[in-house]
Amino acid sequence: MNQGHSKDSTAESPLIKLTSVSHTFSTATGPLPVLDGLTISIAEGGFTAVVGPSGCGKSTLTRLIAGLMKPDSGEVWLHGEKVVSPLSTVGMAFQNPVLLEWRSIVKNVMLPLEIVAQGMPVLEQEERARYLLSLVGLEGFEDKRPSELSGGMRQRASLCRSLVHKPDVLILDEPFGALDAFTREDLWQIMHTLREEEPFTALLITHDLRESIFLADEVIVLSGRPARSQYVLPVDMPKKRSLDDLYTAKSSEMLAVLREQIKIAQGNTASASA
Ligand SMILES: Nc1ncnc2c1ncn2[C@@H]1O[C@H](COP(=O)(O)OP(=O)(O)OP(=O)(O)O)[C@@H](O)[C@H]1O
Ligand SMILES: [Mg+2]
Q1: How far apart are CA 273 and CA 230, in angstroms?
Q2: Which ligand 1 atom is nearest residue 62's CA?
Q3: Which long-range contacts (CB under 8 A, 24 or more apart) does 207-210 make?
Q4: d(Cα 172, Cα 176) in Å, to the nearest integer?
Q5: For 138-167, how does the pLDDT look when each residue is reduced to its tens digit (9 = 90+)?
Q6: Which one, of 77, 80, 78, 74, lies nearest residue 12 by Cα?
Q7: Angle between helices 122-135 and 151-163 (to 10 degrees)
Q8: Which one, out of 68, 119, 147, 180, has a CA that is 20 to 30 A from the CA of 253?
Q9: Residue 95 CB less than 6 A away from ligand 1
Q10: Domain coordinates in residue numbering, the chain
Q11: Is the distance from the beta carbon of residue 108 to the nearest atom of ligand 1 less than 6 Å?
Q12: Is the CB of 272 within 6 Å of ligand 1?
């Protein structure tokens, strides 16, 4: 059972639910409203991408879902329980994977198990980590140090680490943003493999519209700061996708809609620095 929840039997269905979430930061130059009445639902097993102008509040949204901070108003729910403090069953991956250089790759992947699954025998922890590493094509690299791997390989290892403890939710904050285009496309395909083998519910923050439609079931476009949900695009593609699916007329149409929405959102962004 997750920590950081307060149970409310009246809350139901979606795995992640945000209801009218608003948040304002206090800054040296005054209050900075960042989120404005955000309402989002993600069903169990769903994959939602969030796109929006830089500085509109996307990373703030991920911190709220992970219970790392509380909204000024509105509520965040996970599995029908209100999120009130940091959650151990949220897996997170970021743009720059922070792997510990003094640990081997497999030991880095095992780290969350050492924290949240202390009862699991070490051999079993290692077996699970090695299994995930093999799913992402890193067999043979398990005993290397992070610095011996390429950026794309480190990001694969980081994805394994974020999934090793079978989190309820996987939060991805621009995890592929720093990779070259080919490596990024490899990682997109690996995400599909992982989703098939290790079903999870995901929220992906990205600036890459092709990435959003390739990976998600639904794309939410946030307005400029303070962010509201400006537009929701259901991604009309089969769950199993190949890169060719990005070059169909339907995909071009979806991308055109998203580009247009982003333009509108950028027009809405307040002039204060992000
Ligand atoms: N702890 C904080 N205190 C004050 N202001 C903050 C804090 N965290 C974020 N902000 C501000 O809130 C706004 C939203 O930040 P956030 O990181 O959520 O944006 P973002 O959409 O993730 O941006 P990017 O696309 O560039 O990653 C920014 O203007 C940022 O400067
Ligand atoms: Mg961000």
Answers
A1: 21
A2: 18
A3: 207/51, 207/54, 207/174, 207/177, 208/176, 208/177, 208/184, 209/51, 209/255, 209/258, 209/259, 209/262, 210/246, 210/255
A4: 9
A5: 999 999 999 999 999 999 999 999 999 999
A6: 80
A7: 130
A8: 180
A9: no
A10: 1-87+215-274
A11: no
A12: no
Residue closest by Cα to atom 24 of ligand 1: 54
Q: Is the CB of 24 under 6 A from ligand 1?
A: no
CB of 57 shorter than 6 A to ligand 1: yes
Nearest ligand 1 atom, CA 63: 18
pTM of the model: 0.91
Q: Could you tell me which of 41, 42, 61 has the C-alpha nearest to residue 51?
A: 61
- CATH number of the domain located at residue range(s) 1-87+215-274 in this protein: 3.40.50
Report the SS3 class of residue 199: coil
Task: Give the residue whose CA is nearest to atom 2 of ligand 1.
Answer: 25
Residue 4 has pLDDT above 80, yes or no: no
Token readout for 56 is: 């509109």
Q: Is 25 in the pocket of ligand 1 (CB under 6 A)?
A: yes
Ligand nearest to the CA of 272: 1
Q: Which residue has its alpha carbon closest to ligand 1 atom 7? A: 25
Full 3-state SS string of 226-251: CECEEEEEECCCCCCCCHHHHHCHHH
Coil, helix or strand at residue 201 = strand
Tens-digit pLDDT profile for residues 18-32: 999 999 999 999 999
Residue 269: burial class (beta carbons within 10 Å; 0-12, 13-18, 19+): middle
- Say how many Å lie between the CA of residue 136 and the centre of ligand 2: 25
Tokens representing 2 are: 């997750």
For atom 1 of ligand 1, the residue with the nearest CA is 25
Q: If you measure from the C-alpha of residue 248 to the centroid of ligand 1, how many angstroms do you get, rounded to a whole number? A: 35
